[in-house]
Amino acid sequence: TEDDIYCRCLSRTLCHTATPVTVGLFAPCCHRLDSLLAKVTGFMREEMARREEAELLRGRQKPRSPEGWGLLLALWYLAFYKPVITEGHLRRKNIEFVFIRFSAWQYAGCDKLWAGLVTALCDSIRRHFGALPLSVYHVVGTRPRYASGFSQKEWVLKTGACLKLWGLLFVLAAGLSILLVALLVPGIKDHHALKVLGGAATSLSGSGLALGAFSVLKNLLVSEKRKIERLTDSHRFASQLGFMSKVRGEVEALIGYLAFMEIFERRRLRVVLEITGLDTCYAEKVAGVLDAINTLLSDSDAPFIFLLAVDPSVIVPCLEQTGCMKGLADNGYLYLNRTVTLPFSIPEMGARSRLRCLEAAVQTREDLMYRIITANVERR
């Protein structure tokens, strides 16, 4: 159909475009946007599988995943190695898309819609890669650095971290040995100085190890989504005292973690955030979401692709009612242009697309479910 052609073109464009990028998927009917997004997602998954196969045929290293034994390996690298972005990594063609659907109407009741956007992003990344690796990254992880020259070494040992760990383990073993000798060996039991020395060494080294484990456990139990929700519930939120900087810090930590996972998984990562339902929200909240895309989520290294699926004839009048139009001559299209990097307009539905929609409309529920099952089989 005509829609298939448009969506195929957009999906190929998104596979090659630099990030971060905000794509305006403009269609005249808001009910049509869901089907268009489903087509774009399907075509991008096909391209992802094709690139994976082509990369394996080239004889490149097999990609990894933080699951099973891969999880233990990821934790090992997080604790003891620094990732390095090399020329070989930049030449990798295989890519993994992480699709996140953000329906704005689900968060329309909150005071700050853009906070819902950030929490949805953090929560989806946490669920996709697992809570444990992200928690360990918050405590001991390091952001990747660029290689000097054409070196292909992607991992560098953390000398300082290894020395600290071995030092704590040595002091702990020495303290336990002294304590056991002072308690069990006859003739030395009366020496209280040895007991004090062994107890002090054991408690100091053990507390250092326990503090690190406690930090990991704390980040494991308290997610980034929960942290931002606590900030919004705080009394300081009204005055914005340090609030935006903390949210920005959480987003930067998330971007660093994604860069780490790129090197670990041996593939490029792209987070596709599909934003829908802005047409049903209040004007100020729509402007807040666009501002969040422009500021909080616009890091130059961020692997984010924002698919802004809206009907411009509805969004533009909303923007023109807000106070963000100052200096733009009250022109909503200028403000939308400032946010959208790549506008992609889809015209009205053609004859083939209308027939396909009519065919789907007259099908029974079982037929539609069978169609989904066959599509999943073809995807595999």
Automatic annotation (TrEMBL):
Transmembrane portions of the chain: 165-185, 197-217
Domain KAP NTPase: 92-364
Keywords for this protein: Membrane, Transmembrane, Transmembrane helix
PANTHER family reported for this sequence: NTPASE KAP FAMILY P-LOOP DOMAIN-CONTAINING PROTEIN 1 (PTHR22674:SF4), NTPASE, KAP FAMILY P-LOOP DOMAIN-CONTAINING 1 (PTHR22674)
The protein, known as: NKPD1 protein
